[in-house]
């Protein structure tokens, strides 16, 4: 039944008349709006590439909504950056996220998401991602921590994360944090319309590997904006020309998890959330939420 409905929807989309209003909601005739765009995508699809569905292309109104959500998202991480220090607990970080988010009229997207019990993810050292804030987890001198914040405002989602270094961090860990940021920046530089997600992924994993690091395979980025996690799934191990075509209006995250040692990970069986490196070595992650524009990329949240 679902397949039938989808097919029906697809046919309707394809049959749009040249003089009909465009599917994008601009109010313009299809022939003067997205017709050439759709033809270009269809040509690339027929060449064997994965291409985005119309649902993945954000309208100007949606982009405005995501940007307003992102203002709160970044304010949360700015405030964490001001307050974070040795001796603090990860529950204190959760409290900051709640204060800033609710104070600015938003809702933390993590809270109750598929049963996640807190408002933010806090992942320390060998924790790869999805660390659960707790009064029992204290920040120590030399720790590196990822704070991954997601925000809902008026139904629009923003998602970004940053690393913080506590006190005197070893040169090895500092380098991991810095190289991981460089991976995101190099990936970002590859985001442009009519390129492929693999162009971005290649830049990310090449830089990580050149530095002797590995990239987590199982957990990736995602489309983001109208829902928390939308298609496409975004990996960082593919190569130039592979994975989905990027077109203006697509919004997704660049959030590679880079391990100092091997790429292997496991999930804590007690809570089914917290992910760790199998070898116990440190892992780092930064996350940017990016929009593909007519000319390149715009970072919406970081
Ligand atoms: N914020 C994470 C991401 O970047 C998702 C966390 S899901 C949660 O996609 F439930 F753990 F919050
Ligand atoms: Co994300």
UniProtKB/TrEMBL annotation:
Pfam families: Peptidase_M24, SEC-C
Cofactor binding note from Swiss-Prot or TrEMBL: Binds 2 divalent metal cations per subunit. Has a high-affinity and a low affinity metal-binding site. The true nature of the physiological cofactor is under debate. The enzyme is active with cobalt, zinc, manganese or divalent iron ions. Most likely, methionine aminopeptidases function as mononuclear Fe(2+)-metalloproteases under physiological conditions, and the catalytically relevant metal-binding site has been assigned to the histidine-containing high-affinity site.
Residues the record lists as binding a divalent metal cation 2: 159, 222, 255, 287
Binding-site list for a divalent metal cation 1: 148, 159, 287
Xref: Gene3D superfamilies: 3.10.450.50, Creatinase/methionine aminopeptidase superfamily
Transmembrane regions listed in the UniProt entry: none
Keyword Protease: yes
GO terms for MF: initiator methionyl aminopeptidase activity; metal ion binding; metalloaminopeptidase activity
GO biological process: proteolysis
Enzyme class, first EC level, given as a word: hydrolase
Binding site for substrate: 130, 229
SUPFAM superfamilies hit by this protein: Creatinase/aminopeptidase, Sec-C motif
Keywords, ordered alphabetically: Aminopeptidase, Hydrolase, Metal-binding, Protease
Cofactor(s), names only, from the UniProt record: Co(2+); Zn(2+); Mn(2+); Fe(2+)
EC number: 3.4.11.18
Domain Peptidase M24 span(s) in chain numbering: 64-294
Catalysed reactions, as listed in the record: Release of N-terminal amino acids, preferentially methionine, from peptides and arylamides
InterPro entries: Creatinase/aminopeptidase-like, Pept_M24, Pept_M24_MAP, Pept_M24A_MAP1, SEC_C_motif
Domain of life according to the entry: Bacteria
Physiological role: Removes the N-terminal methionine from nascent proteins. The N-terminal methionine is often cleaved when the second residue in the primary sequence is small and uncharged (Met-Ala-, Cys, Gly, Pro, Ser, Thr, or Val). Requires deformylation of the N(alpha)-formylated initiator methionine before it can be hydrolyzed.
Assembly and oligomerization: Monomer.
UniProt record similarity statement: Belongs to the peptidase M24A family. Methionine aminopeptidase type 1 subfamily.
Protein name: Methionine aminopeptidase
Source organism of the structure: Candidatus Weimeria bifida
Protein's gene: map
């Amino acid at each position: 039944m679902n397949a039938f409905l989808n097919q029906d929807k697809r046919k309707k989309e394809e049959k749009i008349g040249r003089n009909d209003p465009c599917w994008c909601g601009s109010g313009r005739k299809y022939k003067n709006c997205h017709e050439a765009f759709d033809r270009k995508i269809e040509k690339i699809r027929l060449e064997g590439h994965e291409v985005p569905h119309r649902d993945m292309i954000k309208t100007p109104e949606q982009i405005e909504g995501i940007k307003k959500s992102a203002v709160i998202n970044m304010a949360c991480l700015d405030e964490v950056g001001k307050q974070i220090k040795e001796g603090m607990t990860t529950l204190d970080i959760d409290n900051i996220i709640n204060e800033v988010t609710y104070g600015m009229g938003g809702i933390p997207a993590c809270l109750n998401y598929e049963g996640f019990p807190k408002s933010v993810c806090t992942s320390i050292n060998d924790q790869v991602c999805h660390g659960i804030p707790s009064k029992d987890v204290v920040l120590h001198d030399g720790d590196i921590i990822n704070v991954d914040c997601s925000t809902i405002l008026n139904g629009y989602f923003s998602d970004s994360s940053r690393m913080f270094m506590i006190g005197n961090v070893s040169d090895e860990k500092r380098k991991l944090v810095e190289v991981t940021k460089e991976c995101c920046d190099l990936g970002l530089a590859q985001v442009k319309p009519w390129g492929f997600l693999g162009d971005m992924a290649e830049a990310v994993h090449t830089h990580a590997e050149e530095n002797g690091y590995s990239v987590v395979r199982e957990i990736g980025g995602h489309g983001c904006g109208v829902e928390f996690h939308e298609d496409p799934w975004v990996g960082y191990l593919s190569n130039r020309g592979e994975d989905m075509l990027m077109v203006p209006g697509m919004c997704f995250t660049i959030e590679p998890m880079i391990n100092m040692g091997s790429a292997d990970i496991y999930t804590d069986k007690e809570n089914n959330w917290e992910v760790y490196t199998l070898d116990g070595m440190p892992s780092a992650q930064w996350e940017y939420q990016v929009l593909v524009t007519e000319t390149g990329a715009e970072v919406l949240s970081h």
